[in-house]
Amino acid sequence: MAGELPTTEFDDIPEELLDELEALAQERTEGHVNMVQLLDEEGRFHHRSHFAERASAWNGDELRGLYRDMAMIRRFDAEATALQRQGQLSLWVPVRGQEAAQIGSGRATLPQDYIFPTYREHGVALTRGVELGELLRQFRGVSNGGWDPTETNFHLYTLVLAAQVPHAVGYAMALQRDASRAAGAGRPLPESAAVVAYFGDGASSEGDIHESMVFAASFKAPVVFFCQNNQWAISVPTQVQSRIPLHNRAKGYGFPGLRVDGNDVLAVRAVTEWALERARSGKGPVLIEAYTYRQGAHTTADDPTKYRLTAEEESWLAKDPVTRFEKFLRAEGHADDAFFAEVAAEGDALAAKSRKDVLAFEPPSLAEEMQNVYSERHPLVDEELAWHLQYEAGFADADANAVEGGH
Amino acid sequence: MPTMTLAKAINAGLRDALAADEMVMLMGEDIGALGGVYRVTEGLKAEFGEDRVVDSPLAESGIVGTSIGLSLRGYRPVGEIQFDGFVYPAFNQITTQLAKLHARSRGQLTVPVTIRIPYGGGIGSVEHHSESPEALFAHTAGLRILTPSNPHDAYWMTRHAIECEDPVIVLEPKRRYWLKGEVDTEDPGTSADPFRAHVVRQGADATIVAYGPLVPVALAAAEAAVEDGRSIEVVDLRSLSPIDFDTVTASVQKTGRLVVAHEAPTFGGLGGEIAARVSERAFLSLEAPVIRVGGFHMPYPVSKVEGQYLPDIDRILEALDRAFAY
After folding, report:
1. Which of residues A2 and A210 earns the better pLDDT score?
2. pLDDT digits over A138-178, tens only?
3. Searching chain B, which residue's CA lies closest to the CA of residue A219?
4. Is residue A62 part of a domain?
5. Is pLDDT at A23 greater than 70 in this prediction?
6. Do B206 and B183 have their domain in common?
7. Which of A47, B141, B197, B278 satisfies CB 3.0 to 4.6 Å to B247 for a cystine?
8. How does residue A1 score in pLDDT terms, banded at 50, 70 and 90?
9. What's the pLDDT at A22?
10. The domain containing residue B130 runs over which residues?
11. A185-203 pLDDT, tens per residue?
12. pLDDT band at A4, cuts 50/70/90?
């Protein structure tokens, strides 16, 4: 090993795809951002890319399903934003504009894959079957989690930027060990699985991303790094995070990276499927940079008018992922007015249910929260819990006396 | 019963844990072929293979972060941080992630990660190699912290930490790695509960609470105090989170005086917490204020003067004198 030169030759990748990846490594060509794109802004399908063949195989049901998911999450997101404006949520993290990046990548995963989201992956949550109302618990202030990650393999949201990414790599290392243990014991191999680690252009600057990519590369861990470059880390543009296209960083770690049009659900799904298949088959990590745009604010506490121009926002509205895909479905004859009306009604029903769920959330008791700090008994917790219960009980006694006394 | 050094006892504890449970694995810098900079993991890679004894990239946050991910799928990773002063790159992963995942998930997730950290001074080392960061972790709910003072405890604390469903930091007193003692690997005896303090010397007139590297120093000070006609009880705290205040309080109720000694700076240190709790629980038993002996409010000094910084027998005796002045 020592003295051997590292290499970034990816000899398992077909020649024509390698050529495509090389071409994509350039930031721009004549003012055009280089990235894998199957649908142009008008929703016209192009066969230029190596990935077109994969997307061409999807039938009408699958295509309509992708649209449905995007429309549903957009509607849900609008409802959550409204709930925050009405004072029912303390904060919301809008996803509007990133629906294709999230639905496309989420739909590329298999049930046995495991997903580590940031705090904006509402669309991915939908594709994993997470009850969407559960996403609102954190923002309602009744939980720091909300769902059981082991049911859907969709991990809890992580608010410390990039902190979940080494967890994703560790989980991928666990998958490798599951397979080698099974092989060693002569047991049937588990279904091959991979991990997706989500993060954004802002988090890409965090040290944990670097350490994660080093670990993943060194151990060839089955993990797909999925970076949604939505152009803005709150108020700071991507150019401050990276002077080179973000996906090009992968080469420095020794695994492939590529940029995909994050507003093109077909391209995102195709590219992510390829990366996941590669990871599952033991060929190691891939970095995908999904080039997209946060149409709204970073959170409901943010004010984008302070740092970006309306002209920029409008130019991205023209690339909107949902309307683009609607144009495609209509032009190809995959969907008609009745379908879109049905999806809209379904979205309204989801929004109404989520609103109902939120208003019914019961906060936990502080006593329960204290008991969840440790798995095993802890004398300090026991002592403080006993004191807390006694102290609170004092108020209950006082209230009861007040009622009895008629005050 | 075999006699072995404290480092060898940890090695035996790790080996037996690896043999007992195929989900146990070790990860750290130089822990494989080299066996760790202190040789604590010597021979384990050869015995259990590179999947289970992992030479990691040089990245502490990565070691702890990937250990969390491994534990989420049922593994029981034991991460080694090479030196106390190098744990800070992993501080975020330990405090915001590892400590909180169980609570955040309302108990749905457990993260049984063990983090081994050689700590403390007295070995004439260079900067960042002699620190005592225990208060930073003790202040963080969700973590447990153990520190052995003898080989038998070192073996059993290693075993218990790995078996614990909660994340455990094991602070290994590096200047005692070569301390020899009997280790019963079959029967933990009084070490069966790692979170209980031990009265390691009975006394009547004052109590010294110490842990990890200072336990032998406290015992020597107690022995020296006999010449002054003083009968000193010594408590080895063993667990720094939780702290066994019952044992400490019972001792103070018996002796009426308390000196707490640790290498870490006194300001904001565990000695202050112990003093506060004891004054709440046993105020009327106290004949004197609780006296703390510890490091000064300064970065750990250069090694040529560390002897004046570290609590030694004389510093503890001086503290006892102050306690007896009341």
Report:
1. A210
2. 999 999 998 999 999 999 999 999 999 999 999 999 999 99
3. B56
4. yes
5. yes
6. no
7. B197
8. very low
9. 82
10. 3-190
11. 999 999 999 999 999 999 9
12. low
Angle between helices B60-72 and A164-184 (to 10 degrees): 60
Query: Within a 13 Å sphere around the CA of A277, how many CA atoms are in the beta-carbon half?
Result: 10
- Residue B202 shares a structural domain with residue B185: no
Can you tell me which residue has the tokens 């639905």? A103
CATH of the domain at A199: 3.40.50.970
With respect to residue A10, please indicate whether it lies within any of the assigned structural domains: no
Range of weakest confidence among A25-34, A215-224, A324-333, B305-314: A25-34
Q: A160: buried, middle or exposed (CB in 10 Å: 19+, 13-18, 0-12)?
A: middle
Residue B212 and residue B307 share a domain: yes
C-beta atoms of A379 and B245 within 8 A:
yes
Distance from CA of B91 to the nearest CA of A (A): 11
- What value of ipTM does the predicted structure carry? 0.97
Query: What residues form DSSP beta bridges with A257?
Result: A287
Query: At which of B139, B163, B190 does a domain end?
Result: B190
Inter-chain touch B108–A149, beta carbons under 8 Å: yes
Instruction: Look at chain A and report how many structural domains it folds into.
Output: 2
pLDDT at A30 over 80: no
Contact call for B69 and A168, based on CB within 8 A: yes
Higher pLDDT, A103 or A26: A103
Domain that holds residue A187: 15-360
Residues of A in contact with B106 (CB under 8 A): 143, 145, 364, 368, 372
Within 8 A of A167 by CB-CB distance, chain B residues are 65-66, 68-69, 72, 97
> In terms of Cα–Cα distance, which of B141, B52, B125, B122 is closest to B86?
B125
Per-residue model confidence as pLDDT tens digits over A289-311: 999 999 999 999 999 999 999 99
CA dihedral (B19, B25, B26, B32) in degrees, to 10, reads: 70
Question: Is there a single domain that holds both residue B37 and residue B87?
Answer: yes
Q: Which of B75, B195, B241 sits opposite A174 (nearest CB)?
A: B75
Asked if B182 and B113 sit in the same domain, the reply is yes
Whole-number Cα distances in Å, B14 to A84, A107, A181, B79: 51, 42, 19, 11
Residues A351 and A375 in one domain: no
The answer to whether residues A106 and A73 touch, using CB atoms and an 8 Å cutoff, is no
Output helix, strand, coil percentages for chain A, rounded to the nearest 5.
55, 10, 40
- A145 vs chain B: nearest CA distance in angstroms? 5
Q: Which residue of chain A is at minimal alpha-carbon distance from B277?
A: A380
**Alpha-carbon gap, residue A36 to A267, rounded angstroms:** 6
d(CA A405, CA B259) in angstroms, rounded, equals 52
**pLDDT score at A398:** 78
Alpha-carbon gap, residue A168 to A162, rounded angstroms: 10
Q: Are residues A291 and A395 in the same domain?
A: no
Q: Do B66 and A167 touch (CB under 8 A)?
A: yes
Q: What's the rounded Cα separation, in Å, for the pair A92 and A90?
A: 7
For residues A393 and A297, membership in a common domain is answered with no
User: Is residue A194 within 8 Å of A113, Cβ to Cβ?
Assistant: yes
Q: Are residues A160 and A237 in the same domain?
A: yes
Tokens of B90: 């992993």
For B61, the closest of A144, A173, A208 (CB atoms) is A208
Which residues in chain A touch residue B67, judged by CB atoms under 8 angstroms apart? Answer: 170
Count how many domains chain B has: 2
Q: Do B69 and A173 count as a contact with CB atoms less than 8 A apart?
A: yes
| Domain-embedded: residue A5 | no
Local confidence band at A6 (pLDDT 50, 70, 90 cut-offs): low
Phi/psi region, residue B120 (left: phi>0; alpha: psi -120 to 50; beta: rest), is left
